[in-house]
Design a protein that fits this description.
This protein is α/β, with parallel strands linked by helices and about 290 residues long. The protein has 2 domains: about 50 residues; about 180 residues, Rossmann fold (3-Layer(aba) Sandwich). It is built from 9 helices and 7 strands, in the order αααβαβαβααβαβαββ. α5 links the parallel β2 and β3. α8 runs parallel beside α9.
């Protein structure tokens, strides 16, 4: 058997080139450059992504700021400021078909009945027909709207009401009503600053079956606001026997807060669109409004 010979390779063997330190350095240097290039690319990508997220966040904050500037604001009591409604609904006073059907169904369930409406929008001109045979009374503060009901027929009356408040005073009036016992919805006195004085005696004496609150205007800080109308509706409803009080525009802060305060959320029985329907049971007999 031939003797074993040690492995030997020529000096120019490819294996030596592979194992040589110089060759190894030539192979790893491009890899290092490639790795460094990838790291820089990733870093740039992260920076770009962060920049995009920052810009998106700024746009979102700007959009929220612009949007919320149109909604009602409740100013802190420490500033003793007013709750105002800054969202304008001047161009959106039309009831949707579902809202009109909702209101009509409530009236039809009790028709013929005693129907009191705060506000005189065009679509409400149909209500006396829906309440045929009943008594329908409209309370409106704008003289030009009062002319719409002239010659409408028997059982319909229209009275002008003057409101001395403004929507910007809502927060202050709400604080007053909460701490002053004269603002109880179980009786009506002129001491309560939120009470609407000068009400027709006919309105105060009637037991109302349905009361609709969609007036006066409440779409700006200088408008009368519906604080007094909702309060009066709450007082009048408690002299009836299961009176339905239907409040419109409850997407606005004043309508929502004053409905909770004087009609009570526990009495809310149904809703549709911007309408809330409260059912209020019979309470103590209404005390006539007297000057102190």
């Amino acid at each position: 058997m031939p003797p074993e010979e040690p492995l030997s390779y020529p000096l120019n063997s490819p294996l030596l080139h592979i194992l040589s330190p110089k060759s190894s350095l030539n192979l790893t240097l491009p890899q290092k450059k490639s790795f460094l290039k990838m790291s820089l690319t990733k870093r740039k990508s992260i920076l770009i992504l962060v920049f995009i997220l920052v810009i998106a966040s700024l746009i979102r904050v700007l959009r929220i700021t612009i949007t919320t500037s149109y909604f009602p604001n409740v100013v802190s009591s420490s500033m003793d400021h007013d709750l105002i409604t800054t969202r304008s609904n001047v161009s959106d006073k039309t009831l949707s078909e579902k809202e009109l059907t909702f209101l009509s169904d409530i009236i039809l369930q009790k028709s013929p009945c005693n129907l009191l409406v705060f506000g005189l929008e065009d679509q409400y001109l149909k209500l006396p027909t829906i309440n045929k045979g009943g008594a329908t009374v409209f309370l409106e503060d704008k003289p030009e709207k009062l002319m719409k009901m002239k010659g409408n027929g028997d059982g319909v009356q229209v009275f002008r009401i003057r409101y001395k408040t403004s929507a910007k005073e809502a927060y202050k009036l709400l604080k007053h009503a909460r701490r002053d016992s004269s603002c109880s919805v179980r009786r009506l006195t002129s001491k309560c600053k939120i009470a609407v004085t000068g009400f027709p005696k006919e309105v105060l004496k009637i037991k109302w079956d349905v009361i609709v609150v969609d007036g006066p205007g409440g779409d700006g800080p200088e408008s009368p606001g519906r604080m007094g109308a909702i309060y009066m509706a709450g007082v009048l409803a408690r002299s009836g026997n299961g009176t339905n009080v239907v409040v419109h525009d409850v997407d606005r802060m004043i309508e929502k807060w004053f409905s909770w305060e004087f009609l009570s959320e526990k009495n809310l029985v149904s809703s549709k669109g911007k309408f809330w329907n409260f059912k209020i049971g019979q309470r103590k007999k209404l005390v006539s409004l007297k000057r102190s």
